Amino acid sequence: MIATDTDILAAAESWRREGRQAVLATVIETWGSAPRPVGSHLVVDGEGGFQGSVSGGCVEGAVVEEAMEVMTEGTARVVEFGVADETAWRVGLSCGGRIRIFLERID
């Protein structure tokens, strides 16, 4: 079952109330067979736990790694994964397509 936006934002709110940092990842663009539509979300806490999905499991691990850097640096960023990208086989997006994800710290 895919978490709803309400579930994802509730998790982020709960983590913030507990004093934990959080980063929101949002799909901003897709090409080809990307498994989640634009607007899909994933939220990551300061311990690497997450709620939601931006790719149906293809790139979540890499997005969590990027989110941890965003937490530390405090600077939002856009990341891109795809078959033509050098990270395609590392993150498992071998099904085709490309995906761009915006990551921002929730303060």
Briefly, what is this?
Helix content is 29%, strand content 31%. By secondary structure, the chain is an alpha+beta fold. It has one domain (5-106).
Distance between the termini: 28 Å
Q: What are the low-pLDDT stretches, counting only 5+ consecutive residues below 50?
A: none
The global form is: globular
Number of domains: 1
Summing up helix and strand content along with how strands pair, one would put the structural category as alpha+beta
- Please outline the major beta sheet: 5 strands, antiparallel
The count of β-strands is 5
What's the gyration radius in Å? 13 Å
Strand fraction equals: 25-35%
How many H/I helices? 3
Fraction in helix: 25-40%
The overall pLDDT average reads 85
InterPro entries: MoCofactor_Util/Proc (IPR052698), XdhC_CoxI (IPR003777)
Protein name: Xanthine dehydrogenase subunit A
List the helices and strands and how they pair.
Layout: H1 5-17, E1 22-31, E2 41-45, E3 50-52, H2 60-73, E4 77-82, H3 88-91, E5 98-106
Antiparallel strand pairs: 1-2, 1-5, 2-3, 4-5
Task: Provide an overview of this structure.
The chain is an alpha+beta fold and 107 residues long. It has one domain (5-106). The protein has helices at residues 5-17, 60-73, 88-91, and strands at residues 22-31, 41-45, 50-52, 77-82, 98-106. A five-stranded antiparallel β-sheet has the order 3-2-1-5-4. Strand 2 (41-45) and strand 3 form a beta hairpin. The termini are far apart.
